[in-house]
Amino acid sequence: MPVLSVRDLSIEYRTRRGPVQAVRDVTFDLEQGETIAIIGESGSGKTTLAVGLIRLSPRSARVTKGEIRYDDGKRAFDVLSLDAERLRRFRWADCAMVFQAALSAFNPVITIWEQFLDTGRAHGMGDKHKVHDRTKELLDLVHLDPKRVLSAYPHELSGGMRQRVLIAMALLLDPRIVILDEPTTALDILTQRAIIDLLRELRGRLGFSTIFISHDLSIAAELADRMLTMYAGRVVERASVDDLFYRPRHPYSVGLMRAVPRVSGAMGSVVSIPGSPPDLIRLPRGCSYYPRCPFHIEQCLEQDPPLLPVDTPKHEAACIRWEAVAAALGSDAEAPVAEKLA
Amino acid sequence: MTTATGVIDRRDVSRIPGPLVGLVEFLRMMSKKPVGLIGLIGVLFFLFLAYIAPLIVPLQDAVDVTAIYAKPSLAHPLGTDFQGRDVVNQIVYGGGDIITTAILAALLSTLIAITFGSIAATVGGRIDALILAITDVALTIPSLILLIVIAAIFRPSSFFALAVILALLQWPALLRQIRAQVLSLKERDFVEAARSLDLGLLHIIFREMLPNMRSYIVIHFIIAMTLAIYAQAAIMFLGLVPLSGKNWAIMLYFAYNQGALFFKDSFFYLMGPIMAIALFQLSLVWLASGLEDVFNPRLRN
Amino acid sequence: MSPPLIQLDGVSRTYTTPAGTITAVDNVSMTLEESETICIVGESGCGKTTTGRILAGLLRPSSGRLLFEGADVWEKKGNDLARFRRAVQLVHQDPYASLNPTRTIAQTLAPPLAKHKKAHGKAARAAMISLLERVGLTPPADFLLKYPHQLSGGQRQRVSIARALTVDPRVIVADEAVSMVDVSIRISLLDLLHNLATEFHVTTVLITHDLAVARYFARKGRISVMYLGKVVELANTEPLVSDPAHPYSTALIAAIPEADPTMTRTKKRVTLKGAEVPSLLNLPPGCVFHPRCPLAEPGLCDVVVPTLGDLPGGRSVACHVALRERQPAAELLGVR
Question: What would the mean pLDDT of C176-202 be, rounded to a whole number?
Fold first, then answer.
């Protein structure tokens, strides 16, 4: 029983130039204890989707259709149907979010302890001592020294420490689902490594389900069980992490894999994806990846391709040419894409 | 190869800067906040009244003792003054001097503020300290009192001289703003690139930084005009300048001193110039308010 | 034997703050030849951006010299100095801040062309079109009248590069020039910069914290690794990446998450002692890396400051142990 079932979620922004279809018909399941990485670049809709899942979107955004079904075995409901009070209880207790650790994620004029207290109180933890005990417990879990961190102001902490604090804060009420938005972007390599290892450890100890949003493929490679690639607001491929990296079937996923250079091992052929993402207000008819796609044919312009099952189990790609993609990648099922197409 | 697809990132939409990409865009923005549009129409109306109407309507200067403070009628919609001359005609001819002087004063004060504000910020050090000191002193002196004193001592007889005096009272505020802006723009990447390309200080100030300060300058200019008009009204009303020519402020002086307050029929002789000044000021202020929104991309959505 | 194109000779840069003295760059020496591609990599606070700005002549070193064609830059005056300024151009990181938002692309490219190439009107326009083509913005005429906010991040970076090219520079320093650009188009920007070096003989220095980007960009060149203001390793790219000589470089390369699930989950890591990077105000004595270094030897590494020495294979490293053993740290740590 998936802990989160998203069906046909569509979110629209009102802008001066017209409505922007930021998220279109997104469907996926998140199982208990599973980690899903949602990969996309600017304009893909991934951040809109992330904040939309806990309904933190700005007022200019509107969910036009879909449902977000939450089911932890004891309670089940559609997140979109919750009233303000129940939504507040859902947020943080059932599903928490870790934002990018920029300074703007914190209130600059209060100490870290006060941020924890505020968060706890906002979500029903009235007793100051309980919050304190829980906070100390969590800071230990993320390998921070409470004595050093609690009395500090956000700007006194390094980027890595701030990210750990945000992770600790998200775990305050022991949620079932944790959503992380670009958790390692803008962090140094060694700090990134520490955070990735920490997330792995926490996931193992506490057993929560995770959704990562990132443009960074490597964090997906490290931590994800399953992946979704998003392009122009839609999910274009859904697969296990191995399938997506070694056997991608959507041309955009292939393009992404080939566009990311690696440090270790052979370099393979690395090449950018030509062109730029489409204008989300005036989306062309048919597949939105058409102009940049090396596999496109006339038929691709007829309609937006639905997610079609491909040649490996639990793997779907929104491309009518997936078989041609598979053929081009050849039969070596374990080598990374860049090497295969070198 | 990347092509010009005119892609606008969502991040860019909220950062659309000052450049007015066409008059239509400008008017569309203004129409969103009606106050701005009304201000624009008002200002255009008064400019027309002050500069173009006198070319059409002949001056009625003849003294007519039979029609002193005549009641408003078809021939004299706002009545006549203490010498039987038509009030409406005087209002038509009364705007030009005041507005021209105000524009001159605003122009001069803006130029002084831009020049010295930029110099202070780019050169820094002791020159900056000196300019700031002078500015602070100028800021603290009550301007109306100073104006009265200067007007009484120098007795400006030409409008240009008057404009210069008025300008000298306005520049401190804008100078500080310009200086602060230049200090922050100095650190911007594109300014650094201009320095590295060896484009010269003048280019950097006038072509890189100033266009980014357009909003401050234009809005200051408008406000400076309103202050100049009030200042003129004040010193002319108080009789501190030689009263040659005709303008609204002089009308006020005569109206007041010739007892227009005491007659029912001369009401418009007094109120006419007051309303003209007040409405023009209001139009200017509303125009400035509307422009503020046009120039500020973040207030747009 | 002509002098190298541009050289840092024992350059240091310190800042005095109320809290103490910060040594952002400490005794860095580097020699760059024409047409070279080189990357300066390191984490935040390592001094790579400061070094880049010193190279570009935008920051004056507190001690040491910046030499261009053999002559000390900060001793130059008048025309000579102007010539240097034009010869070394910086491309900034933030595509949203590097162009004047109130100027069209044509208005941005025109002033340097007018001032330095004396090109106006038609000649200037032709020059602009040729530049835009060279940086891959086609059709070029379409871009001339656009404002920066009408272009994507990648396109703006190309315009920045075109602007730098208007003065025919000999050296381009790109400070994290691809970090704020979409992943899928980074490679094409890096290819453009690489092309400038190979086809147009412009020495290109890329400053980045991303080793994968560094490896790709400098694949035919060198990488310099910096830590807390010092160069700890300087070598050709492939040897450095496959067999790093300094324990810090080794830890760094081992720590990088890779876009390859099997490889990244089975990669051998190097555990460093202690989690926190020392503050620049309070640098450790001897080798600044010793508190975290798995190879550190008490009595040596915490007392004597290592200097860059040579290892076989044309590599330089600032590590007592690696130099003494004549072996790269990667071998000594067993992560090869």
Answer: 88
Q: What is the pTM of this model?
A: 0.83
DSSP C190-210: HHHHHHHHHHH--EEEEEES-
Do the beta carbons of residue A334 and residue C262 sit within 8 Å?
yes
Q: Which string of b and e fits A293-315 if b means at least 16 CB within 10 Å?
A: bebbeeebeeebbebeebeeeeb
Cβ distance A16 to B10 less than 8 Å, yes or no, reads: no
Model confidence pLDDT, tens digit, residues B174-203: 898 889 989 999 889 999 999 889 888 889
C interface test, pick of B1, B2, B184, B185 with most C CB neighbours within 10 Å: B2
Under a CB-based contact definition with an 8 Å cutoff, are residues B68 and B121 in contact?
A: no
Instruction: Report d(CA A143, CA A120) in Å as an integer.
Output: 20
Looking at CA atoms only, how far is residue B26 from chain A in angstroms? Answer: 15
Q: How far apart are CA B224 and CA B167, in angstroms?
A: 8
Kindly state the tokens that stand for B156.
């400006």
**Bridge partners of residue C12, in order along the sequence:** C63
DSSP for A57-91, please give it.
Answer: --TTEEEEEEEEEEE-SS-EEEGGG--HHHHHHHH
Residue B178 · residue B115 · CB < 8 Å: no
Dihedral angle computed from the Cα positions of residues B10, B11, B14 and B20, in that order, rounded to the nearest 10 degrees? -90
Contact present, C189 and C9 (Cβ < 8 Å):
no
- Determine whether the interchain pair B7/A42 forms a contact, defined as Cβ–Cβ distance below 8 Å: no
Strands (E) located in A72-176: 76-78, 95-98
- C-alpha B150/C-alpha B162 separation (Å) is 10
Q: What is the dihedral of CA A207, A213, A216, A222, to 10 degrees?
A: 10
Chain B residues with beta carbon closer than 8 angstroms to that of C89:
193, 196-197
Could you give the CA distance from residue B221 to residue B288 in angstroms, rounded to a whole number?
A: 9
By DSSP bridging, strand C137-138 and strand B2-3 are parallel
Residue with tokens 């034009």: C86
> Does A265 sit within 8 Å of C255, measured CB to CB?
no
φ/ψ of C281, rounded to 5, equals: -80, -20
Closest Cα in chain A, distance from residue C189 (Å): 9
- Interface check B6 vs A, CB under 8 A: yes
What are the pLDDT digits (tens) for C22-76?
999 999 999 999 889 999 999 988 999 999 999 998 899 999 999 999 889 988 8
Residue of A nearest to C265 (CA): A222
Structure tokens at A37: 């990485």
Q: Taking CB atoms and an 8 Å limit, are B4 and C137 in contact across chains?
A: yes
Q: Write B202-210 long-range contacts (CB < 8 A, 24+).
A: B203/C111, B203/C115, B204/B122, B205/B118, B205/B122, B207/C103, B207/C111, B208/C100, B208/C103, B209/B118, B209/B181, B209/B182, B209/B185, B210/B114, B210/B118
Nearest to C252 among A189, A265, A271 (CB): A189
Radius of gyration of chain C (CA): 21
Count A/C contacts: CB-CB distance under 8 Å.
126
Reading the block at residue A50, the tokens are: 């992330």
pLDDT per residue as tens digits for the range C301-333: 889 999 999 988 889 999 999 888 888 888 888
